[in-house]
Amino acid sequence: MNERRVIRLKGFKNVVYMSLAVGMLFYSIPQLNFREVGSLPMIFSVIWLVMALLIIAAHLHQILGVDEEKRKQQLRINRMKKWQMEQLVQGRRKLLQFRK
């Protein structure tokens, strides 16, 4: 149950941060300079826009939980490694082999 609370809080933070990034994007779009092709202000504007979109995409990726199954699989692997280390420390040399 504690893990659910952490996931909910993490999801809430991602929603807040993504909302802030979207708000910042809407505020800045009219002020960015896209008129002069090849000028430094235009290059800055394009780079800034790409970075803002990457930030929004990263938070959306976290909110949708695309890597949830991968995270669970990694958690299972880490538990197995911890168990194997405990068995080794206790003197039991039989270690289970598991598939990747």
Describe, in short, the structure shown:
The chain has 100 residues and is an all-alpha fold.
DSSP, total strands: 0
Instruction: Calculate Rg over CA atoms.
Output: 23 Å
Helix fraction bin: over 70%
Largest sheet properties: none
In terms of structural class, how would the helical and strand content be classed? mainly alpha
The shape, in one word, is elongated
Order of helices and strands: HHH
Q: Give the CA-CA distance, first to last residue.
A: 28 Å
- List low-pLDDT spans: none
Mean pLDDT: 82
How large a portion of the residues is in β-strands, by DSSP E? under 5%
Number of helices: 3
Q: Layout of SSEs?
A:
Blueprint: H1 2-28, H2 40-64, H3 68-89
Helix pairs in contact: 1-2
Explain what the structure shows:
By secondary structure, the protein is mainly α. It is built from three helices and no strands. It has helices spanning 2-28, 40-64, 68-89. The two termini are 28 Å apart.
What brief labels describe this structure?
membrane; transmembrane; 100 residues; transmembrane helix
